[in-house]
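Service request form, structural biology core

Requester: graduate student, group of Dr. S.
Request type: structure prediction, single chain
Budget code: on file
Notes: please return the result as structure tokens.

Sequence provided:
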Amino acid sequence: MECYALITLTQTTQHALQNQSAFFMPTIFVYALKNTLNDEVYVGISADPVRRLAEHNKGKNRYTKAFLPWEIFFMEEQPDYNAASIREKYFKTAAGKRWLNNLWVERHE
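Core staff response, request fulfilled:
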């Protein structure tokens, strides 16, 4: 019985390694950027916000390239893309923008 359980575990482990996407979800972040030109706030989702910031500052985003340079002032880890999308939508509402702007002001007083 124990030997069979060990074989089953090994087969399960091999299956998990072959199908990593079923077991491994990358960490997803909601992030907020701010520029100094017009105090614009940009909210996005990325598994790598630091890399994404570099892309924004290289002008690879149609919206953000007009207001260079950007800096990250907020990152929030989310359990999955769906949760991140819901949170991103909140930060794009008036209440969410107000919360982010208050956070910016608190950190720069």
